[in-house]
Specification:
homodimer; 455 residues; Aminopeptidase; Alpha-Beta Plaits; 2 domains; nine-stranded mixed sheet; four-stranded antiparallel sheet; 18 strands; globular
Chain lengths: 455, 455
Amino acid sequence: MPDIDAYLDAHRDQFEADLCELLRIPSVSADSRHRGDIRRAAEWLVAKFRGLGLACDLVETAGHPIVLADSPKIDGAPTVLVYGHYDVQPPDPLGEWISPPFEPTVRDGNLYARGATDDKGQMLTHVLSVEAWMTTEGKLPVNVTLLIEGEEEVGSENLDKFIEANRARLACDVVVISDTSQFAEGVPAITYGLRGIAYYELRLRGPKQDLHSGTFGGAVKNPAIALAEMFAGLIDENGRVQVPGFYDDVAALSDAERKQFAALPFDEAAFRNQVGVAQTFGEAGFSTLERRWVRPTFDVHGLTSGYQGEGAKTVLPAKASGKFSFRLVPNQDPKKIAAALKTKLAELCPPGIEMELVEFHGAPGVVVPLDSPFMAAAARAIEHGFGRAPVYMREGGSIPVVSTFRNLLGVDTLLLGWGRDDDNTHSPNEKFNLADFHRGIRSSARLWRELATRK
Amino acid sequence: MPDIDAYLDAHRDQFEADLCELLRIPSVSADSRHRGDIRRAAEWLVAKFRGLGLACDLVETAGHPIVLADSPKIDGAPTVLVYGHYDVQPPDPLGEWISPPFEPTVRDGNLYARGATDDKGQMLTHVLSVEAWMTTEGKLPVNVTLLIEGEEEVGSENLDKFIEANRARLACDVVVISDTSQFAEGVPAITYGLRGIAYYELRLRGPKQDLHSGTFGGAVKNPAIALAEMFAGLIDENGRVQVPGFYDDVAALSDAERKQFAALPFDEAAFRNQVGVAQTFGEAGFSTLERRWVRPTFDVHGLTSGYQGEGAKTVLPAKASGKFSFRLVPNQDPKKIAAALKTKLAELCPPGIEMELVEFHGAPGVVVPLDSPFMAAAARAIEHGFGRAPVYMREGGSIPVVSTFRNLLGVDTLLLGWGRDDDNTHSPNEKFNLADFHRGIRSSARLWRELATRK
């Protein structure tokens, strides 16, 4: 593909400028104050696609809009659905960013900004590879539909409804998503398994208002203590979740997969150093990669209660709340887990406390087959873009739409991750390596040809 | 005292105006942004005392200033040290106030404002009774020293140093403090026992920054979960503190005191309704009053970790912290408790978590004798002011300075509380009943005479 690759080489600066432009829009889907920014990001994409000559719709939903674009129809060629998202996580805690989250800044070859890798940067690699083909050839060798949503970070509720209502419109042979990471620096990867998620907020109420802990303490159950007791009751000291039946359906780790993981160039000491802990922690009998990829977990994401200011305040708080989730692995049923959780929490809730459980988005874990022609085409494209064949890995994060595509469209997903494990996804100082950005575009441009010749 | 009481009756509006003026100054000692307001409140008092013809000093400390005033010297008369504080608790949560915390507002005979009862309103009753005597008689029948500090709500650290360095200057026969409550509406009380306090903040650190809970969850110990586990480990489901030796020195409740408490007109259902809980909770084998007055406790005052905003964020937080305290009863030694706590927390702290324990103020519990002539004089003064003889009660809150006065000056304290149990001390919508305010002034004015004739 001399013409295509030459175009990519010649437009590196322009591609980076495009990415920075999109990153400057603070499209935080979880925060209603950013509703206008979300729309601006969607409209930026619409303008981009129309500028390339693609048919494009801004699809309104009950929440944030979906952007849907199609490359010119090629009869007889396979159809690829590229999924990505233009919304980003909240940037909190703001004080820990070295450069402001919505002012993209390059340091040491990395572009720092909220959304740099998750998912604006990775998603754009496919948009820009389409640009290269359209500009150079006037068409693509396959049919590409780009489906870019604005609610990935808040559960994709309206996307699911849209897919369900538009199955024929979205019919395809395979889905491509770039929203994951390489295995390590210089080790590109295809991810064939993801964990699912079940996310909740537990809200507790004790007395009708904050009380003086001297006058009332000892006679009124303290909701902050109740929250501590209830969360502590959901997991044991060995990291085992205490919801009855939680592990019943967990797919056992095969010896083959265990060997495959063990063969990956994973450096435990480097991992501890990256994360900044003196020792790792997790379920007994499993390696760090196994704990992150194939075992279900319980994590608390936030705690809020009482006085959080400077100094001492002797208050017995009226309320306490905590956000938490379980990461789920294939075969665990989110609905079954939710039911068992509610029973367990009702048991754990002490007298004098009223509880409310708010359910956020959920998704099951997923694995896709390794032996498909699509997988082989993707491996060749990555070898072209990165100069090295990919390894096959799993990932602890959740991309719920992968199981939606399996269930509603009957297709598997190629998870082609251009990011890195230390990209600070969902954390302060999120970044995307610019060399990886361009390798991703090059891989994507090659992927269209590999998929065309392979079908 | 016809002249004095007539003065009090004639100046009710002026007294209320004085109180409102002081309440409008947001003298929050825990919040460094209010440093200037603290000083304004101190200067307000200095101007007041000097206006009455009292010798008055604004004493600088390493923190907020102390106001010290003396009535004209009466040879041979006893010396009474009146202690109070002009600082107030933070007003959070602000959104729950019906009227703004620093805009005093009267509703149904109650004056609503932060500090209304704790302690500006109660403290002012003694200032205004001194005003009545000075204006009417030109002097008081006893020697009164007024010691008003600005750091009661943050541990009185500098007051303790000041008392230690000025024992001769502060020598007295008895201390009077109004910073407690009546037993119930229409049931005035003298409080003869207080709980102590040991206040801490536990700060936990896990990974060096917030992580994606999907990519890392299961392999890195979550500090929010560690905090929950550690707090849950400090107390059992029956409300018993799990710090080894915590109960070793607790003074047992005598049959006589148990009977005395049981004879008080306490309405359990009204208490539940006041607090807003379906059921009370506490140590087995003790009544609600016993749990609040004579049993030590553990309470969590605040929890902070991770994402606390709107919606869902899948973060594995780097940090978690919680403020907590033990209320202590007579004979428990705060130093011994602190040492045992540190050992216990070190045991509870899980691998992969670094902990820091910040120690705030501490004070032992205290009881004062019921059979002194001062106590009898106070009872007569209260009967004059409230039209009913007081009952004798204990209180679950802490006034650490009471044990300081016992230890450094060798004197006991009369705790003459004009407030009510439902005054929302330390909570939103703090109030002080205006009829009680005037009854307090009348009792205080009578107290000086009763103490003079009694010595």
